[in-house]
Design brief:
With 226 residues, the protein is an alpha/beta fold. Helices cover 41% and strands 22% of the residues. It has a five-stranded parallel sheet with strand order 2-1-3-4-5, sandwiched between helices. Strands 6-7-8-9 form a four-stranded antiparallel sheet, with no helix packed on it. It is elongated and about 60 Å long.
Length: 226
């Protein structure tokens, strides 16, 4: 699966160089040119890694990092600092950045840092046999489910969907990816996904029209949050 990198950098030449370089290396790359846009994109997408400049307009890289970690977003972050910004390196690591690179740097150095960090932080998706959230208890092995202690009837597909979401909790998952991974085909039938999600919400959500657990992310897909 292609790794996705978000670059948050206001220097136009640097953005082009990083985007082209990492695209050539096989990564999927998106760019945000200020801190506020970077924060929004970081929260809306499922990124494997974020490259975050310290000095940004609208919101500093340090503030972006602090906000992401405060919101429970644990996407690996490499911060870019200017030479002499030693205090920024220390603060960045304290508030949750995973690594830093000092400008000017070689692309080879940054790529090596990215690959090393991804090796440390990338783990295979866990397989969960039982899970509980809110008043819902799920046993994926026996395909049994209860809500407030009372049995609820879920189809095999609904158990499959729930296990998929639970094992990727916090990730934004597109309708196309759900079609690929759950239905095992890639066709323009995203309404199939929407109909199954709507039916599943009626069974597990207290307010299906205002869901708490399976949340719609506008234009991006769905996210499971417990």
């Amino acid at each position: 699966m292609t790794k996705k990198i978000l670059v948050v950098e206001d220097d136009a030449a640097m953005c082009v160089a990083l985007r082209d370089g990492f695209t050539y290396e096989g990564y999927e790359v998106a760019v945000a040119k200020d801190g506020a846009s970077g924060l929004q994109m970081a929260g809306a997408g499922a990124w494997n890694l974020i490259i975050l400049d310290v000095m940004l307009p609208r919101l500093s890289g340090l503030d972006v990092c602090k906000k992401l970690r405060g919101d429970g977003n644990h996407t690996p972050i490499i911060m870019l600092t200017a030479r002499g910004q030693e205090i920024d390196k220390v603060v960045g690591l304290k508030i949750g950045a995973d690594d830093y690179v000092t400008k000017p740097f070689s692309f080879a150095e940054l790529t090596a840092r990215v690959e090393a960090l991804l090796r440390r932080t990338t783990k295979p998706n866990e397989t969960i046999e039982k899970y509980q959230f809110g008043d819902i208890t799920l046993d994926f092995v026996r395909q049994q489910a209860t809500k407030s202690g009372e049995p609820i009837k879920l189809s095999s597909r609904e158990f499959q969907l729930l296990q998929y979401f639970v094992e990727r909790r916090g990730e934004v998952i597109s309708r196309e990816k759900l079609l690929d991974d759950i239905w095992s085909y890639n066709a323009p039938l995203t309404r199939t996904v929407d109909m199954h999600i709507a039916k599943l919400r009626r069974k597990i959500e207290d307010a299906p029209d205002n869901p708490r657990y399976i949340v719609t992310i506008h234009r991006n897909g769905y996210k499971f949050s417990d």
